[in-house]
Automatic annotation (TrEMBL):
Listed CDD domains: Ribosomal_L25_TL5_CTC
Protein name in the entry: Large ribosomal subunit protein bL25
Spans annotated as Disordered: 205-227
Pfam family, one: Ribosomal_TL5_C
SUPFAM superfamilies in the cross-refs: Ribosomal protein L25-like
GO cellular component: ribosome
Keyword DNA-binding: no
Keywords of the record: Ribonucleoprotein, Ribosomal protein, RNA-binding, rRNA-binding
UniProt superkingdom: Bacteria
Positions of the Large ribosomal subunit protein bL25 L25 domain: 7-94
Assembly and oligomerization: Part of the 50S ribosomal subunit; part of the 5S rRNA/L5/L18/L25 subcomplex. Contacts the 5S rRNA. Binds to the 5S rRNA independently of L5 and L18.
Length: 227
């Protein structure tokens, strides 16, 4: 189960681009808490504190208790916006939830036992992953941190579907209308004659370019000596 996280916040009365820019200059990140049939609450949080939670790796599928002016609000992060240039967080959306609200979450998948998969360890196959996360429905108090899938015994050509995954009790897939694939063990890629010829041509071109650059540098050095 995911750990419950805590984040201090302050309410904000002024909203809009100007107010948000001012908050960011002060090291704060604008945010909003909405849902649960209540009015949205505009808040701002410390950027450093937010970054610490983001660095846990499971911020988006953890319950976050937001302390807004002494008011403890149970939330689930729904979206974090980042600056395209600096990659700093610029806004956060939190969904207000109850202690046992049914929630939709994206939970990361971890593949285990590669050494026990004949298709990988012996045949040299490659694990082709089509889904790195699972969208799950569960109780807010029992959100899984990750879903581990064992590759033991799988050979080349084997596929893993959602029906093959043992989910924790009370956890179900959000996509229930089809048995979707998660990963497949595919045969190793065998280089063709064309691939080898292309690699040789690229290597030859790179070598010729390096020789030309060396000759040019040597000529410049000789010119400097002459002067």
């Amino acid at each position: 189960m995911s750990d419950q996280l805590e984040l201090a916040a302050e309410t904000r009365e002024q909203v809009g681009k100007g107010a948000s820019r001012l908050l960011r200059r002060e090291g704060r990140v604008p945010a909003v808490i909405y849902g649960n049939k209540q009015e949205p609450l505009s808040i701002h949080v410390e950027e450093k504190a937010l970054m610490r939670l983001l660095m846990t790796g499971h911020f988006m599928n953890s319950v976050v208790m937001v302390d807004a002016g002494g008011q403890q609000i149970r939330t689930l992060p729904k979206d974090v916006s980042f600056d395209a240039v600096t990659d700093r967080p610029t806004h956060v959306d939190f969904l207000r939830i109850g202690a046992h609200t049914t929630v939709h979450v994206q939970v990361p998948i971890v593949f285990a036992d590669e050494d026990d998969a004949p298709g990988i360890a012996k045949a040299g196959g490659v694990l082709n992953i089509t889904r790195h996360e699972l969208e799950l429905v569960c109780d807010a108090a029992d959100i899984p941190t990750e879903i581990t899938i064992s590759l033991a015994g799988l050979d080349v050509g084997a596929s893993i579907h959602i029906s093959d995954v043992k989910l924790p009790k009370g956890v179900t897939p959000a996509i229930a209308d089809r048995d979707f694939a998660i990963a497949t063990i595919v045969p190793p890629t065998v280089p063709t004659v064309e691939d080898e010829e292309l690699e040789a041509a690229v290597a030859e071109a790179q070598s010729a370019e390096a020789e030309a650059e060396a000759a040019e540098a040597e000529a410049e050095a000789e010119g400097d000596k002459a002067e």
